Amino acid sequence: MRQRHGFTLVEVLVALVIMGIVTGAIYTLLNTSQRVSLAQAEQASLQSNVRIGSLVVPNELRELNTVLGGTVDRNDITDAKPDAIKYRAMRGLGFVCQAPGVGATELRIAQSTWTGLRNPDAARDDLYLFFDDDPNDDDDDTWLQVDVTGASLEADACGAAAGYELDIAALPVAVPLYTPVRLFEEMEMKLHEADGQWWLGARSVSGGEDIQPVLGPLTEDDGFELQYLNGAGAETADLTAIKSVRVTVRGLTEDAVRAGGSGALGRPEEALVTQVLLRNSIR
Questions:
Q1: Sign, Cα dihedral of 60, 66, 71, 77
Q2: DSSP per-residue letters across 130-179
């Protein structure tokens, strides 16, 4: 009868050692793969975040008007700081459907001509009214700023057609038919701290809103930088001289990661720089 032998103790120990080595290698591989995947996901989110910021901010600023031989009140930038900006953001454009005279306190805009993000809102909006005193003189064209105290959509505001009726401060001039009207609200964008991190924050100054995070996280000291340039490309603090704005958005990952799955924990950073030429800028 043939005897059957089991594994010896040495063989069992060798097998356990080999199994431990293989298991450790598999664990290391899986752990490294997880770290790499996490780092890649954080990096992709960071790049997307910065790209969005470099699109959204310039798009918001691109509509701003610069001064054409006028006063600060006709510049859409009302406050310029290295990490914050206040500005008059355009919210709609329409054309007057009736011709009010000097001292009038009501302005009517045809709904069919209105183009904007939303309807006029007296709690947030004021308006610019185009005024051309002499059609033969190009130098006297200007946009008059007028306060809005009330706004409603009426079915018969423009004869038989619907339109917006705006209650306004008394007009200093007579307004011809089909005069362009641009509504705006004052907005603010700034580097803002919330929940222990830094963000691009925004708010409606006209609406009395609190600052709200809209993009981030960003780096603490230089996550949102603005440089205000004159026509020669030099930095300026004079609101009437600003012709373009250079915007830097510098983000970092939300969580600490190990680049490449190994090495020390850190929060990678990435930055994009864009330059916006303000509307009506002439170099």
A1: positive
A2: EE-S-TT-GGG-EEEEE-EEEEEEEEEEETTEEEEEEEESPPSS---TT-
What gap in Å lies between CA 130 and CA 146, rounded to an integer?
A: 11
Which letter does DSSP use for residue 279 in this model?
B
Digit-coded pLDDT (tens) for 69-79? 444 456 789 99
Domain coordinates in residue numbering, the chain? 41-85+187-277, 88-185
Burial of 29 (0-12, 13-18, 19+ CB in 10 A): exposed
Within 10 angstroms of residue 230's Cβ, the number of other Cβ atoms is 16
Write down the residue that tokens 């008007």 correspond to: 65
CB 151 within 8 A of CB 125: yes
Return the amino acid letter for 31: N
What residues have CB less than 8 Å from 69, skipping those under 6 apart? 139
Nearest-10 Cα torsion for 88, 94, 97, 99: 30
CA-based radius of gyration for the chain: 30
pTM over 0.85: no
